Amino acid sequence: MYFGSNIKLLRKRRGRTQDDVAFSLQMKRPTLSGYENEVAQPSIEVLLAFSSYFNIAIDTLVKVNLGSFGESQLRQLENGNDVYIKGGNLRVLATTVDSSNTENIELVGEKAKAGYTTGFSDPEYIRVLPAFRLPFLSESKKYRSFQISGDSMLPIPDGSYVTGEYVLDWSTIRSHQPYIVLTREDGIVFKIADNKIENEGKLTLHSLNTLYEPFDLPVTEIHEVWKFVHYISSEMPEANREKETLLETVKSLKKEVQAIQTRLNL
Q1: What domains lie within the chain, and their CATH numbers?
Q2: What is the pLDDT of residue 102?
């Protein structure tokens, strides 16, 4: 049972003393200390009181070792996203941490993409993925890198690694911005998203390559969403031929206009 260590961890994360929590729960400080040090066993009434105070389910307080969680997982719980309270459709993101309990950036390469579609919520699967850290990214946010394939997001080259920041609340998805989306049927897709969740219950996904048509993705078909942060590639992006053609056309038109003006002034 992890009750004692869990309430101690949660109390310290809130910056509260034992006196503060004991006063709020109308109990004596030595009693609270006894619970935290596991020399006293809480009653059902006490469990209910702590569950209400931290807004975390009794099952989580008792059965789950919160000390093994990374920062993003703990923030999900503290924001009220406890699977025991909200139901099975919400879950705590499976993640890995280094020796200092700082969350890693897991790498989902081309060969791992198929397995990730089914193993994304399995801590054992996530644990075997290659992991690394980037010092210029925030330690308080959760990131993951995915290798993309194809030419739908040119000028980002085929085979690039795109890194995303985990999006817990899909209502915060910003239209016309790039996201990595884990879908039920198509696996990992990297697209520009239009957020139509509130009114239509879907995202409309666009490619940077205009040869590809946009398509709608119902929220029921989405497993995860990651906001694009950056990409890494060993190739230089190709020149934007469409832009170059447009510039040449504009230059040609300018010359024609100047020629017409010259004739009119004669």
Answers
A1: 3-86 (1.10.260.40), 105-232 (2.10.109.10)
A2: 85
Instruction: Give the chain's end-to-end CA distance (angstroms, integer).
Output: 96
Question: Is there a cis peptide before residue 155, judged by omega within 30 degrees of 0?
Answer: yes
Number of residues written out for the chain: 266
What is residue 153's predicted lDDT score, i.e. its pLDDT? 93
> CB within 8 A of 97, min separation 6: which ones?
70, 103, 104
Separation between Cα atoms, residue 69 and residue 131, nearest integer Å: 16
Contact 139, 71 (CB under 8 A): yes
Question: Backbone phi, then psi, for 72, in 5-degree steps?
Answer: -65, -35
Distance CA 67, CA 36 (A): 13
- What is the distance between the alpha carbons of residues 143 and 205, in angstroms, rounded to a whole number? 21
Per-residue pLDDT, 106: 96
CA proximity to 82, closest of 168, 183, 189:
168
Give residue 6's pLDDT.
94
Predicted pLDDT at 88? 39
Whole-number CA gyration radius for the chain: 26
> Could you give the CA distance from residue 103 to residue 140 in angstroms, rounded to a whole number?
9
Q: What is the residue type of 229? A: V
The rounded distance, in Å, linking the Cα atoms of 190 and 180 is 4
* Phi/psi at 255 (5° precision): -65, -40
Per-10-residue mean pLDDT of the chain, 266 residues long, equals 93 94 94 94 92 88 84 74 48 78 92 91 91 90 94 92 91 94 93 92 93 91 93 77 64 78 73
Pairing of β 105-108 and β 143-147? parallel
